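name: query_chain
kind: protein
chains: 1
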Amino acid sequence: MDHKKELLASRIAKIHDPVQKRLLQDVLVDVFDPLLTYNEESFARLEQKIDGERKDPDSHYYIHTGVCKKDGIDSASRSFFEVFTKGRHSEGCLGTLFLACDHIQVKKCLSGTYRARVETDQGEYLTTVFLTYCQAYQEVIYELYRHFLANRRRWHTINCPFLYKFLDIRDQEGVVPKDAVILKVSVDLGEFSDFVIDDAALVWNLSEQLCKPKVEVQAAGNLSYYAHRILLEDSQSGYLAAPEEEDLFSVVFCDFKGQLLVRTQKEAHPQLKLLKIEPFYEQKDHTKLLYPISTNKRKLRHADRQAMGQPRFLWTKGEVERILGSYEAFLDFELLDVRPDMQGEVEAIDLNPFIRLHSFLKQKRKIAVLLRPKDREDIFRYEKMFFLLSELQLCTDEYAWTGILC
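structure:
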């Protein structure tokens, strides 16, 4: 309403004769104001029609992450579940700790070695240890990416700044027996000791379910396959099929029927595993999170949804700000500038190391995004920036994106 009044006022302001100004005002308000209203309503209906034809299911696949104490997990939660590593700790890993400091301090901690006392079922051992990013959690993210790929769903970088505060404790001397059960690890981290949080757990809105599908044998040319029909109970959640021991399978989402059709070739599965991405129910969740939730959620306007299907040949500050502005994570920053051929202050973490991008360009031009964090004391500000950079990197392969916090 305000913009229409401003538009009409700008036209009337050009007339200086008071009689003609009044006549023009009557014409504009009585004739052109209804036309402007009709035009805006028509465009709104057109956008709704196009959006309906290009239904975007991405809203069901946003991942929310958090960190809490293990005794702070709400067992009745509908939204947050512990990220299980399923015994994936590699050889030489004595345990995992959470380091509550910023990225610069974590990098400094990763470059050192420390003395540790390890209590096992076979006795106590003194050894030298070093720290690395938690490999088990990294593998879980990689497996989730594979599930997105197998289900033909669009991948968005997981915004999980907490992931890069979980550090594996590794035995450098190898004095702890490989078959020993680790009971307790005491590490003297010196200046970093005050940042250690014991018994921390990574949580997200993803759960595993076993369902009993209705299985039929169907033909496709000279081949046959097994069609598994699964009735989806929750229309507000996202689903990824994960049939065991099936490298090649196809998934069809029958939204109008509320069904999931999974086609496999090896065998019929009496039970089939689904990964369910739950919506976030803030009022119904009582998980005692240590820090605010992080998410890769986006708020896409009509123009944003259309632009996703178009090639991007020219990058400008406005285009970068439009893309970043759709992410909730960008609310913690202010975009100052976009500059070519400028090195970042710290080496960025590739949050999608399992995605292999191929380019004929051997020398990629570096583009730096200058951001100002709204909270300079936020220990996750670097990781949030790396998330935004990783999303930009997925948009184009001809540039190498880097970031600078100002």
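note: Residues 108 and 192 are 10 Å apart (CA to CA).
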